[in-house]
Every structure is written in structure tokens, then in C-alpha cells.
């Protein structure tokens, strides 16, 4: 009872900035305005008013326009979100320190196509630092407001007062609430703050972006329950180059197969207009042995990437796989298929695999290109010029069908590849394909090797 009495004790709130004091002052210590402190009831410990009773409604009576999307101002962000920012949604963005999370969200805050006020809440930077970054990036927007605080109650009070249609919190680990403990960044604090902010967004019809720190393993810090609370989880990744990848690990409103591609410049994050150009190495001469071009499908578009392989004799006749961008288990499986069905001896060789541009490949459609690169590296025979491959490889050595094969072939033709090899598909020989969508069909790994190199046998 005593605790409840202390929570309900009235105080004085500044009408200009929302700062609270236990007693009346002539001048607000936060904003410096005079005679703006007025008596008001203290908010609850969590900072939110008592919730009104909820009632169920018929599904047919719900207005579908309430789930409309708004453009974020960046086409690559819209692609990963599934078409834009969903009203009332909460998005959790994680990434390594310094990768550009704050820059990305500040650009979205300034460029988003929403009608109304936008609030940027920062617990890591001062208002002057945010203004300097906005000036450096050339970002301006009427109705964009900034609040610097580490207190969840102050953040929620500001959201109730400003009523933004879009708000950002940078970062979730810097917020704290008396209800969840005294130390910011703990598992309870992260879960509690994420729940309060996402619930407010749903109730008010606002959209929110929450920045989250990551652990040494590259996972979002805090409990896994925080990822279940929000609607979308995005991971911001960086390769050895300036290319940034925005991937969706969870999306209640769209696909998780999409990837957004950016480069970091002095003017902020710039979208890649020609992603395949980053993952292909342009050479004036023929490609060396061990290089193959794969056609992978990411979400709604095809990307052409260069797979590089190298084989060297293993030590003590043991074979090891070194691969970061393609799962080592996939590389070992493809190598085993080559050894079994083509006769290529790899059990006593170390295999190194790399992907140009640093993109991670997990789609099964890269199996044929990976097999061609390993075969080329082991035999020293380069692939013919202007060849791209797509297809899944089974343990029986069969080339299996992959989705969107006509679209892959068309994308390769647009990049001036004269030949495309892929799995057998009945409709590929029909009349339903447009020019440039056809491909050379191979039914097995042995047939692919014969087509490219003239023989399916290799010296043991």
C-alpha cells in the first residue's frame, strides 16, 4: 500500500518538454522555459495509463485499411519488410556496433512516406549529435522530433503526448523501467521495454523501430522472448567490403527470403541498383580454374554470384573444408557426390570455398555451380566463358528442379551470359517461355560435367 501511495503522489510536469519534478519550480531545468511546470498526477510505474476493457469484434467488421502499408523512403527496406511499413507494427533491428543501424533508422525517419509526426528516441546520443548526423546526411523533415532519455516512463509519456505515427528507439538496451529492475540492458529490462513499446504501437496504430545490440555470436542480445514480442526481426550485416545486407529473420507480414543491399557512403546508406555487379568479378580474360557463376534466388529477384573454390593436398591424408559463406556441410556433401558419381578424388584434399562480395548463400540452387567450381579447382580445367549455373544436387547425383528457373535464366541473359545450365524441367521445352528464359538441361552431375568439360571422368 505504501508503494502504491508513493506511485500515485502528484508532481509537476513541464508543458513544453514533459519533464517532471517533485515540487514546483519557476524554470524547467530540462528545457529552460519559465512558468511551464503544472501539477499533474504521476504516471504508473511503467509509465502507461490503465488499459480500457477490450471487446471482440466480428472479423467482417474490421476495416482492412487499418493494416495499410506506408513507404519507408528506401526501396530495399520496403523489400525486406514485405512492401512497406505496416501500421501498428513493431520492428526489431539488430547488428554489429558501427554497422549503420542508427544511420539507417534516421534515414527512414526523415524519408518515410507517413502523414503525421515522427519521434526519434535516443538513449545513446545527445540531440546535438543527432542533428549533426542529420545535417551531414542532408536529411530534413517537418514534424520530426527528437527525445534523448534512458527512462521508459519518460519515453512512454512523450509518446502519449506527441502521438507520432512512427517512432524509433535507439537502443532497446539503454532503456530501463523501475518495474523490471534497476540495471538497464538485462533480460527482464529488454523483454519488458519491448513489450510496452510494441503494445503501445498496436494500440495507437503507430509503427515503431527498435534497435537491439548483438552478442559476440552475432545474435540479438537479451531473451529470445523479445523477438517473439515484435512483428518483424531484421538483421543488419556487413562483409569485408562496404556492402551491407539487411535480412529478415522473422516477418509476420511478408517473406523472410528477401535481402536488402546497401553501401555506406559519406552521404549515408545508398541502395545498390545493380547488386549482381558487386558479386561478379569482371575479367578481361577467361576465368581461372575453380571459378563458377551461380544464379541464386533471393526473395523476388535473381542474383548472380561468383563461387570460388581451391583444393590442396590435405595433411596426413585428411580432408577438411574451409567455408564461411556457404555451409561447410553443404560443401562436404557436394564433394562426396562428386567423388561417388564422377570419380573425382577429394577425400585426401582440403577444400576452400569463397563467395565474391561476401554474401552468404544458403539456397539449394547453388549446388550445381558449387560442384562445377570444385571440379574445376581439382582438375585445373576452367569453365567455358559466359556460363552460369543453377540447380540442386541430390545424393544420387541428380540435378533437381529449383524454383523460378525461367526467371534465373532471364536474369543471366540480361547480364550477357550466353549459356545457362540447369535441371531438367518438362515445361522448359514447351512454348510457355519467353526468349532468354530457356536453358540447357542436364539431368545429373555427370551430364553437367560432360557438357562443360567434355568428360565425366577425372584422374584419381
CATH H level, superfamily name of the largest domain: P-loop containing nucleotide triphosphate hydrolases
Question: Biggest β-sheet: count, sense, barrel?
Answer: 9 strands, mixed
Rg for CA atoms: 28 Å
Strand order, largest beta sheet: 8-7-9-10-6-11-12-13-14
* Unreliable segments of 5+ consecutive residues: 1-7
What is the CATH topology of the largest domain?
A: Rossmann fold
Overall structural domain count: 3
The protein's oligomeric status is single chain
CATH class of the largest domain: Alpha Beta
Q: How many strands appear in the DSSP assignment? A: 23
- Overall structural class, as computed from helix and strand content, comes to alpha/beta
Helix content: 25-40%
How many helix segments? 12
What fraction of the residues are assigned to beta strands by DSSP? 15-25%
> What's the overall average pLDDT, rounded?
85
What's the N-to-C terminus distance? Answer: 83 Å
Report what the structure shows.
The structure is a single chain. 26% of the residues lie in helices and 25% in strands. With 460 residues, the protein is α/β, with parallel strands linked by helices. The chain folds into three domains: 9-40; 68-273, P-loop containing nucleotide triphosphate hydrolases (Rossmann fold), CATH 3.40.50; 278-453, Ribosomal Protein S5, domain 2 (2-Layer Sandwich). The strands form five sheets. A nine-stranded mixed beta sheet has the order 8-7-9-10-6-11-12-13-14, with helices on both faces. Strands 17-18-16-15-19-22-23 form a seven-stranded mixed beta sheet. A three-stranded antiparallel beta sheet has the order 2-1-3, with no helix packed on it. Strand 17, helix 9 and strand 18 (349-355) form a beta-alpha-beta unit. Helix 9 (328-341) packs across helix 10 (367-379).
Amino acid at each position: 500500500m505504501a508503494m502504491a501511495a508513493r506511485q500515485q503522489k502528484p508532481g509537476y510536469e513541464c508543458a513544453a518538454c514533459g519533464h517532471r519534478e517533485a515540487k514546483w519550480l519557476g524554470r524547467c531545468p530540462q528545457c529552460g522555459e519559465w512558468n511551464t511546470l503544472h501539477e499533474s498526477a504521476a504516471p504508473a510505474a511503467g509509465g502507461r495509463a490503465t488499459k480500457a476493457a477490450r471487446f471482440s469484434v466480428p472479423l467482417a467488421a474490421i476495416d482492412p485499411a487499418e493494416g495499410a502499408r506506408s513507404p519507408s523512403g528506401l526501396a530495399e527496406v520496403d523489400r525486406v519488410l514485405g512492401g512497406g511499413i505496416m501500421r501498428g507494427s513493431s520492428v526489431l533491428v539488430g547488428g554489429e556496433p558501427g554497422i549503420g543501424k542508427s544511420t539507417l533508422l534516421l534515414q527512414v525517419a526523415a524519408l518515410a512516406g507517413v502523414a503525421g509526426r515522427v519521434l526519434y528516441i535516443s538513449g545513446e546520443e545527445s540531440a546535438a549529435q543527432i542533428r549533426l548526423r542529420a545535417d551531414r546526411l542532408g536529411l530534413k523533415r517537418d514534424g520530426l522530433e527528437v527525445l534523448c532519455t534512458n527512462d521508459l516512463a519518460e519515453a512512454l509519456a512523450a509518446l502519449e503526448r506527441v502521438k507520432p505515427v512512427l517512432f524509433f528507439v535507439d537502443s532497446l538496451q539503454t532503456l530501463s523501467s523501475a518495474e523490471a529492475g534497476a540495471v538497464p540492458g538485462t533480460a527482464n529490462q529488454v523483454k519488458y521495454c519491448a513489450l510496452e513499446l510494441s503494445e503501445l504501437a498496436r494500440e495507437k496504430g503507430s509503427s515503431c523501430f527498435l534497435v537491439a545490440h548483438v552478442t559476440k555470436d552475432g545474435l540479438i542480445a537479451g531473451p529470445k522472448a523479445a523477438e517473439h514480442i515484435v512483428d518483424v526481426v531484421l538483421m543488419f550485416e556487413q562483409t569485408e567490403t562496404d556492402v551491407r545486407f539487411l535480412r529478415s529473420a522473422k516477418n509476420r507480414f511478408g517473406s523472410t527470403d528477401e535481402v536488402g543491399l546497401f553501401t555506406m557512403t559519406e552521404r549515408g546508406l545508398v541502395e545498390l541498383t545493380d547488386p549482381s555487379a558487386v558479386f561478379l568479378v569482371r575479367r578481361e580474360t577467361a576465368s581461372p580454374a575453380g571459378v563458377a557463376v551461380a544464379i541464386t534466388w533471393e526473395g523476388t529477384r535473381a542474383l548472380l554470384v561468383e563461387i570460388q573454390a581451391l583444393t590442396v593436398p590435405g595433411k596426413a591424408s585428411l580432408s577438411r573444408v574451409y567455408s564461411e559463406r556457404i555451409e561447410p556441410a553443404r560443401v562436404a556433401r557436394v564433394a562426396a557426390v562428386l567423388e561417388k558419381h564422377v570419380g573425382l578424388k577429394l577425400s585426401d584434399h582440403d577444400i576452400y570455398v569463397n563467395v565474391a562480395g561476401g554474401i552468404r548463400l544458403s539456397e539449394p540452387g547453388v549446388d550445381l555451380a558449387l560442384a562445377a567450381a570444385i571440379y574445376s579447382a581439382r582438375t585445373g580445367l576452367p569453365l567455358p566463358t559466359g556460363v552460369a549455373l543453377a540447380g540442386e544436387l541430390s545424393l544420387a547425383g541428380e540435378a533437381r528442379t529449383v524454383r523460378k528457373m525461367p526467371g534465373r535464366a532471364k536474369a543471366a541473359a540480361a547480364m550477357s551470359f550466353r549459356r545457362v545450365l540447369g535441371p531438367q524441367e518438362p515445361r522448359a521445352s514447351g512454348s510457355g517461355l519467353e526468349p532468354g528464359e530457356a536453358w540447357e538441361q542436364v539431368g545429373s552431375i555427370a551430364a553437367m560435367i560432360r557438357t562443360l568439360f567434355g568428360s565425366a571422368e577425372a584422374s584419381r
